[in-house]
Design a protein that fits this description.
Elements: E1 2-7, H1 12-21, E2 27-30, H2 40-49, E3 52-55, H3 59-68, E4 75-77, E5 89-90, H4 99-104, E6 108-110, H5 114-128, E7 139-145, H6 150-158, E8 170-171, H7 181-186, E9 195-201, E10 207-214, H8 224-234, E11 241-243, E12 264-270, E13 274-281, H9 285-300
Length: 309
């Protein structure tokens, strides 16, 4: 039986991971006494005792504990602190052909950001196929449920006296300095950060990432069908990624169909001049907690989707 310690288990991401793991007979979840949750020595003892530890902490706290953890202690960090750091493997199994092997054999794994996950999985295959140049200037926007903002945003949205404005979508990241941007360019191979507009709306979980392409940005003539074929070939056999043949019959792609799921549905639509790449998934599933469990399963050598399907 493998021992797993979740440092920061009472945050939004940690609680969802516990939901996924609590019924597993192959795992023992190590619990720290409530009074020692912020005691770094007590947490280090748990990390040393665990086969794998999952950090569900703010960026600075994740950096502090990672800096003093033994080099051979396996850490999966769900914060944004180490996603582009040397010595850390990016925890997106579908990224490259050898990514699973890198994850399996690493003691330092950084979980992808929710917004970044959809963007990377849509864009990276087009760059690898030579259809999109790495110097492309891209635009994207993403609609997400408010649980992505953690306990403080959940409390604000669910407060009985919340501002009326929270009933409508709210665009943020207005300074174009969103913390997911560094991983979005590093993991796709882009040389320029995209113009990115994240939007939070009045639903708990689920998200839809949209990348906008103009035909002039492509290295050769290609339409939605051609791009869909590239994505379908890239993700053939992937258990959690589905490339849809067509958009829903009602002509709408909503933000929450994948809420509660750990998969991601990809769509390509538009026309020969203007093309939309769309990823629909759960910001707490494939965008956070579900991705951490997928990485945990790979590290432990168990079925990759165990507890996720």
């Amino acid at each position: 039986m493998y021992k797993v310690f979740i440092d920061g288990a009472h945050g939004t991401t940690g609680l969802r991971i516990i939901d996924y793991l609590s019924g597993r007979e192959d795992l023992q979840l190590l619990e720290i006494e409530p009074g020692y949750r912020k005691d770094i020595d007590a947490r280090l003892r748990m990390i040393k005792d665990a086969d794998v530890s999952i950090l569900c902490l703010p960026d600075q706290a994740a950096a502090e504990i990672a800096a003093v953890a033994p080099a051979d202690a396996v850490l999966i960090d769900t914060s944004s602190r180490h996603r582009t750091s040397d010595g850390w493997i990016y925890g997106m199994p579908e990224l490259t052909a050898d990514q699973r092997s890198l994850i399996k054999n690493s003691a330092r794994i950084s979980n992808p950001g929710c917004h970044a996950s959809g963007f990377i999985l849509l864009v990276r295959p087009l760059i690898d196929a030579g259809l999109l140049d790495s110097s492309a200037l891209l635009n994207c926007f993403c609609m997400t449920g408010y649980s992505g903002g953690g306990k403080s945003m959940i409390s604000r949205y669910e407060s009985p006296d919340r501002p009326a404005s929270l009933g409508s979508p709210g665009q943020y990241g207005l300074s174009q300095s969103h913390k997911h941007l560094p991983e979005m360019i590093k993991m796709t191979g882009l040389t320029h950060q995209p113009c990115f507009s994240p939007v939070v709306s009045d639903f708990y979980n689920g998200m839809v990432m949209t990348v906008q392409l103009h035909s002039s940005q492509l290295s050769r003539p290609a339409g939605p069908d051609d791009i869909r074929e590239i994505l379908a070939g890239r993700y053939a056999g992937e258990p959690l990624i589905k490339v849809s043949d067509e958009v829903p019959s009602d002509g709408f792609i909503y933000s929450d169909p994948m809420a509660g799921s750990n998969g991601m549905d990809l769509y390509v639509t538009g026309n020969s001049d203007r093309i939309l790449l769309i990823a629909v998934y759960d910001n707490l599933g494939k965008g956070a907690s579900g991705a951490a469990v997928q990485n945990l399963n790979i590290v432990l050598g168990t079925e990759e989707t165990k507890g996720l399907l």
